[in-house]
Write a structure and sequence with these properties.
491 residues; alpha/beta; 8-stranded parallel sheet; 21% strand; globular; binds zinc ion
Length: 491
């Protein structure tokens, strides 16, 4: 099986290449890259003149565990979608469920700190289901600190999940923001010992909540420095809000001191979470300079009128998805803040794609186009295209080479040490996995909005996952489920 992509502008961040070239895909791998390649007998030839060809985007922060969600992300240029911030538990079931249902994109999961704590502190039986993990975030009892025995118990659960192939440890610390900092340090120590990264939704910043046990960004910088663990700071845009310059300064200092801290951002001024989450409480919103009117219920579009209504919604259905506006994208100063966050050196693009859901309560659909009435945060559909629009097309802040470095190359490198399969991703070297996106550099753009979040992005012309076309001539291929598991090294 050979496919020859002929005459495109080929971008390979692995080799620093940006030039007119052909790309030959054979048996799911990159076989050759160069101008005027010979056509092997029987090869399918795809004319990609005028288009940009590069390694597909590696999304290290995707909570979509569905065919429907993967298809939205495919139209956005993603070829590998990993849930590393939340993770799943048990990891074996997460991988087995995905393999059984089939996935358009490559997938993978971290060990779930939240799931391990829930099992020990609440006696919850983990089921590797994103719906039940959302529900758990609103549970007060799960948010308390662990006793020494409990800590030992859940650390050992995490250790077995890593041994079973988890891609590091996902830590939703910001959802249990008053827990003993010693717990987080113990997680960092475990990660350093096991040689795997952590991916953290940090706890509150000192500027926002002076009663926080420790500043969220200082904590990750310090833990990385003290333990030597590779520690990834998730969505620095949403957890920092208008304090992002200070936070980036903290992380920059840690990096200069040799700490293995990495950063990720998405290009939206509103976040999304369960309405029962700790940081959506009225008093916490006030600390951030926000109010109930900055919270919107995703399913109904209701903008929350006042604190009384917010408390009611939190009590009625704590797992209901909501939006939280932390910046105002219609203000140039706020938009510039978002761009600065993305532009931070080596900051990578991660979508934080949220599950898609429909009014009948389902989280999945194999129909395409997707059935009407579905909801999610628009970042699930548009993060990568919107970033390319903001950072390359409209401002030229990034070259195409830099864009592919941020969207494909650097995210895959986070996993090199713990998952040997990652080394064949994020670049177009000979032998690399043929996860390839072909896009129209003049048209690439997001289309999803907060009101209409399931509109697929525009401008991805072709998308190959392991050499199989998931998008062809701009059309999603509904029979294509070539996604494979990316797993941690067996230990
Ligand atoms: Zn998060």
């Amino acid at each position: 099986m050979h496919t020859l992509l002929r005459g495109g502008r080929v971008i390979d961040p692995g080799a620093g290449l940006d030039g007119l070239s052909d790309v030959l895909i054979s048996d799911g791998r990159i076989a050759a890259v160069g101008p005027g390649l010979e056509t092997p007998p029987g090869a399918e030839i795809v004319d990609v003149t005028g288009l940009v060809v590069g390694p597909g985007f590696v999304d290290v922060h995707s909570h979509v565990h569905s065919i429907a969600g993967h298809r939205m992300q495919a139209m956005d240029g993603v070829t590998t979608a990993l849930d590393l911030e939340a993770g799943v538990m048990p990891i074996e079931k997460g991988y087995a469920d995905a393999a059984k249902a089939g996935r358009p994109l490559n997938y993978g999961f971290s060990a779930s700190w939240g799931g391990a704590r829930a099992q020990v502190l609440l006696g919850a039986k983990p089921d590797a289901n994103v719906g039940s993990s959302l529900a758990m975030l609103g549970n007060e009892a799960w948010r308390r600190s662990s006793s020494p025995a409990e800590l030992t118990a859940w650390l050992s659960l995490l250790e077995s999940e890593i041994a079973a192939g988890a891609l590091g440890i996902g830590v939703l610390l910001g959802y249990a923001p008053m827990t003993d900092p010693g717990e987080f340090l113990a997680v960092a120590q475990l990660a350093a010992k096991a040689g795997v990264p952590t991916y953290t939704h940090v706890r509150e910043l000192a500027e926002v909540d002076p009663s926080t046990p420790v500043d969220g960004s200082e904590e990750i910088a310090r833990a990385a420095g003290e333990t030597g663990a590779a520690m990834h700071h998730c969505h620095v845009n949403s957890t920092s809000g208008r304090h992002v310059d200070r936070v980036l300064g903290t992380l920059d200092r840690a990096q200069r001191l040799g700490s293995r801290v990495t950063v990720e951002a998405y290009p939206y001024g509103a976040g999304s979470t369960a309405i029962g989450a700790a940081f959506i409480a009225p008093e916490r919103l006030r600390m951030k300079g926000l109010g109930p009117s900055n919270i919107i219920v995703v399913e109904t579009g209701e903008r929350v009128a006042d604190e009384k209504r917010l408390l009611q919604l939190r009590q009625e259905d704590p797992s209901a998805p909501c939006l939280m506006e932390f910046l105002d994208e219609s203000r140039e100063a706020d938009l510039e803040m978002l761009r600065r966050t993305l532009a931070f050196p080596d900051s990578i693009v991660g979508s934080d794609a949220m599950p898609l859901f429909w009014p009948d309560g389902s989280f999945e659909s194999t129909e395409w186009p997707l059935p009407p009435g579905g909801s999610t945060h628009p970042r699930a559909a548009g993060t990568f295209s919107k970033t390319l629009r903001l950072m390359v097309r409209e401002t030229g802040v990034w070259t195409w080479l830099e864009a592919f470095r941020r969207c494909s190359y650097l995210p895959a490198r986070l996993l090199d040490d713990c998952a040997p399969g990652a080394r064949a991703k994020g670049h177009l070297g000979v032998g690399a996995d043929a996860d390839v996106v072909v896009l129209d550099p003049e048209r690439i753009s997001d289309a999803a909005t907060y009101r209409d979040p399931l509109r697929p992005s525009i401008g991805v012309r072709h998308l190959f996952v392991g050499g199989t076309a998931v998008v062809r001539q701009g059309e999603l291929q509904t029979n294509a489920l070539p996604g494979r598991a990316l797993r941690g090294e067996a230990r």
